[in-house]
Design a protein that fits this description.
The chain folds into 4 domains: 321 residues, TIM Barrel; 42 residues, no CATH class; 95 residues, Golgi alpha-mannosidase II (Immunoglobulin-like); 62 residues, no CATH class. Helix content is 32%, strand content 18%. It has 20 helices and 21 strands. It has an 8-stranded parallel β-sheet with strand order 11-10-9-5-2-1-13-12. A 6-stranded antiparallel β-sheet has the order 14-15-16-21-18-19. Strands 6-8-7 form a 3-stranded antiparallel β-sheet, with no helix packed on it. β3 and β4 form a beta hairpin. The longest helix is centred in the N-terminal third of the chain and has 18 residues.
């Protein structure tokens, strides 16, 4: 068992939280990272024991157009500030992983600058993909190159070049020796070269015990990226989408189907990185049609299989919406002083702190086998079973209280279950419990013998009812210079899912009729069009069984060529 098996992550986008200027002038360092030191205590107080923070390194704008991998962004401070920040996290028992933007660099990166100056004579001309000195680009450099996401600001690294691979591996070694970090989240992992990622895994195994590699992956067979030879985990965007839309549509069949689909894909031992919002998608409080669903959504986030992550500010019930193709409102500057008492005064924060404490103390929530107990469109019950004892989770997205009679553990010394959020006690009779679940709420039922004095259930009725009334938390904004917004809008990539009303419909083949596209299998995947790749993926899916509307729409909504190439290659 490694530290990340029991991790509860807090996610910070530092340029936003610190209120850094949108454009980097590369001037004297401004020590904004130090303003995050008080947040470390808050992270621990709300039950998080790991931090994902980034991007952090020198860049010209939003952080994903790296200028220098070995220098903290001037807008945030100096390398010494980062070393101290990680050390302070470790003192509080918080592990730290950084954003690794290793798929592409910015135009101010030394290798690209050398190509601009020396063109064909540059020793770095093969560090990037498809450099063509007979072409041109939007910056009128007199040569063209492969970019990422259609943005010439982001030049795609040639990950098959041994020199590039060696350089990035040395960057990882530098980050560990200089800052003592505990892992890396790989940006855009779903379009990265697999041999490149295997090299990074070898370095991870070398630099530190239990050094964790997690990749940003949207579509495809997650086990292709997360396995013994590549990454330890990937982002579970499928569950992210299901969690909020199942509540908005009053349709827990979507969540149940997604859990089954992902578990069949990755197996029981692989833990994916789960979340309900992040720096690329709208805030969960904004996405929910009924704000009271903040409670059951987060109960599920903390109790379903996976490694839960909380995006900074969302513990306060904060709003955040994409506006004018910009992610700025998703990444606000916050003043710690405005939130230092939130655990005592904000019902959303109280709930998150309680869930964090439960996650860290009830091992079944980390290691327990998942078992579905009862499923209807408006209510859902499942168990996490460890050592013969069941922790039972009940959620209700409807406007009426529901009664549920559920299979429970039979190997209990004390024949009683305790509600972790309400403190209510229910007897165990004939291996079952009878519970009532209030409207738009949920509960975590723990065997009484697992409730220690240090984990006494909180009387949190106050957390459940007022959530509808929680106003958006105060968001500090500062005047900033205009700059390109974060280049990728992950939210737009997530596929819509047809509402399911029964388990049989979930499993039925309902493939829609579309314009026929023939696949020329003599082509390499890289030479296929987006449409050909989509059809190739569907053909491989059909060979494994029925293709549902969910699967079809997932494929059709993905129009990123590189992602599709890796997806089609992921089939075995």
């Amino acid at each position: 068992m490694a530290w990340y098996d029991e991790a509860v992550f807090y996610h910070i986008y530092p340029l936003g939280l610190t209120g850094a200027p949108k454009q980097n002038t590369y001037g004297e360092p401004v020590h904004r990272l130090n303003t995050l030191l008080p947040w470390i205590g808050h992270i621990k107080e709300i039950g998080c024991n790991a931090l994902y923070i980034g991007p952090l390194f020198e860049s010209v704008g939003h952080g994903y157009e790296t200028t220098d991998y070995k220098k903290l962004d001037t807008r945030l401070g100096t390398n010494e500030d980062l070393t101290n920040f990680v050390a302070q996290c470790h003192k509080q028992g918080i592990r730290v992983i950084l954003d690794g933007v290793f798929n592409h660099t910015g135009r101010d990166f030394f290798a690209f600058q050398d190509i601009k100056q020396n063109r064909e004579n540059s020793p770095y001309k093969d560090w990037y993909c498809n450099v063509n000195f007979w072409g041109n680009n939007s910056y009128n450099d007199g040569f063209s190159y492969a970019n990422w996401g259609g943005y010439d600001l982001l030049i795609k690294l040639n990950q098959k070049n041994p020199a590039v691979k060696d350089y990035i591996c040395d960057v990882v070694r530098f980050w560990v020796s200089e800052f003592d970090i505990d892992g890396i989240r790989l940006d855009a992992a779903d379009v990265m070269d697999f041999e490149y990622m295997k090299a990074l895994r070898n370095v991870a195994n070398e630099v530190k015990q239990d050094f964790w590699l997690m990749g940003e992956v949207i579509h495809g067979d997650y086990s292709r990226w997360a396995n013994e030879g590549t990454l330890h985990s990937v982002t579970n965007y499928m569950l992210h989408k299901a969690l909020y839309s199942a509540h908005n549509d009053h349709n827990y069949f979507e969540v149940a189907h997604t859990i089954q689909y992902v578990n069949n894909m990755v197996g029981k031992n692989l833990k994916l990185y789960t979340f309900v919002d992040n720096h690329d998608v709208e805030r969960i409080y904004t996405k929910l049609n009924n704000k009271a669903h903040f409670v059951p959504v987060h109960i599920m986030l903390y109790t379903l299989p996976g490694i839960p992550s909380l995006y900074y500010g969302s513990e306060f019930g904060m709003e955040g919406r994409k506006e004018r193709n910009s992610d700025d409102s998703l990444r606000p500057a916050l003043n710690y002083e405005d939130y230092k008492d939130a655990v005592r005064t904000n019902p959303c924060t109280q709930l998150i702190a309680t869930l964090g404490k439960l996650r860290q103390n009830i091992k079944a929530l980390c290691y327990g086998e998942y078992k579905q107990l009862q499923l209807q469109t408006t209510h859902f019950a499942y168990a996490r079973i460890l050592d013969g004892k069941s922790v039972i989770i009940t959620v209700n997205n409807g406007d009426q209280e529901v009664a549920m009679n559920l299979e429970a553990g039979s190997m209990l010394q004390e024949p009683e279950y305790v509600g972790a959020l309400t403190g209510k006690r229910v007897p165990l009779k004939d291996g079952r419990i009878q519970v009532n679940v209030p409207a738009n709420s949920g509960e975590i039922w723990i065997p009484a013998e697992l409730v220690s004095e240090g984990l006494a259930p909180l009387k949190t009725v106050e957390i459940v009812a007022p959530v509808k009334e929680v106003a958006p938390a105060k968001v500090e904004t500062k005047e900033k210079e205009a700059a390109p917004a974060k280049v990728e809008t992950k939210e737009q990539k997530m596929p819509p899912v047809k509402e399911k009303t029964s388990p049989s419909e979930t499993d039925s083949s309902t493939e829609s009729v579309t314009d026929e596209v023939s696949v020329d299998w003599s082509k390499s995947y890289e030479d296929m069009t987006v449409e050909e790749l989509q059809e190739a993926i569907l053909e491989k899916m059909r060979s494994n069984g029925p293709v549902t509307d969910y699967m079809l729409k997932t494929v059709r909504e993905n129009t990123h060529h590189g992602s599709l190439v890796n997806w089609v290659k992921s089939f075995r």
